Amino acid sequence: MYDNFFSNLPHDEDTASLQEVQALKDFLGGKTTAQVAAREYTTETAKQQQPEATKLWALLCDAALQVPEAQSKLVEILAAVKSLDGTTFKSTTGKLEFWADLPGFVSDMSDSRRGLCASFEGGSLEAEGPSAIYKYTVLMAFAAQLTASQVVNLNLWAMEDLHSALEKDHSATPEMYNEFVPAAVEWILLAGSHLYQSNDKYPDPNEDVRRSMDERSLWKGELSFSKERWDFWRQRLSTIANSSGVTEQTRNAASRALEAMKAM
User: Which of 48, 57, 131, 217 is most buried, with most CB under 10 Å away?
Assistant: First the structure.
């Protein structure tokens, strides 16, 4: 099922080792449990005097992008990795438990997210947009599942994507909804119940940034999750679901999100 992905992986000093790749392959193929796979996947890294897991995280993110059907199992193995015993080390933000805190994972995933955002928000939509939008949506589906499973907290990513899709005024260029709505819908479908119960607030921006956001935003309330904001998002999705200025795919996605929100 995943043979093409694994057979096309490069093997060099900058990528996961053959043992690490095999551990992930065996787990995705149903040959091992998440707990066994987590131990085998991390054995070589754990032996390092100064553990560095970037190669492990890169392989998991690549798999999430290239074989989206494996995302639920990738969440499962990451949850198992978090449960492993690990050494405590100091970082710029304080003490971290190596495996429990998945050090570097969110940062590495964030780099991928920013790269994909830039590729279709930077004016190159016509050249590479559809592919980049698809990849971004797939990556955010993975992020939503990680968040819903409480493996990592990416609530603020969700807020940013929902803001871009449902709070920015794209009335002059409604085709922009085709770019931003798909990722927002994934957050609602895969992590909506979790996010609905959150009271996380976006870090206070400085005055100039806040003024800029207010000028471009249809939402004038607090930058936090709230019932009022969810109601506003629901209204915006209803408008998009009935808009003739977006594609049928976008209208259908908005409709699916609306149905999911009824259960919240």
Answer: 57
89, β-bridge pairs? 96
Instruction: Please state the φ and ψ torsions of residue 185, each to the nearest 5 degrees.
Output: -65, -40
Indicate the DSSP class of residue 69: G
pLDDT for the residue numbered 34: 97
Phi, psi (deg, nearest 5) at residue 109 = -65, -35
Please provide the size of the chain in residues.
264
pLDDT at 220: 86
pLDDT for position 1: 75
Rounded CA separation 223/229 (Å): 9
Q: How far apart are CA 163 and CA 75, in angstroms?
A: 25
3-state secondary structure of 181: helix
Could you give the CA distance from residue 101 to residue 91 in angstroms, rounded to a whole number?
11
What is the rounded distance in angstroms from the CA atom of residue 254 to the CA atom of residue 140?
Answer: 16
Separation CA 183–CA 177 (nearest Å): 10
Q: How much is the average pLDDT of 125-151?
A: 85
Q: 201: which DSSP letter?
A: B
Angle 227-241/176-196 helices, nearest 10 degrees?
140
In three-state secondary structure terms, 96 is strand
Half-sphere exposure of 101 (CA within 13 A, CB side): 16
pLDDT in tens, 51-82: 789 999 999 999 999 999 999 999 999 999 99
Closest of 158, 45, 160 to residue 99, by C-alpha: 45
Q: Is 1 exposed, middle or buried (0-12, 13-18, 19+ CB in 10 A)?
A: exposed
**Which of 130-134, 185-189, 260-264 bottoms out in mean pLDDT, i.e. has the lowest?**
130-134
Task: Confirm if 81 and 41 have CB atoms less than 8 A apart.
Answer: yes
- The sign of the CA dihedral 146, 134, 210, 258 is negative
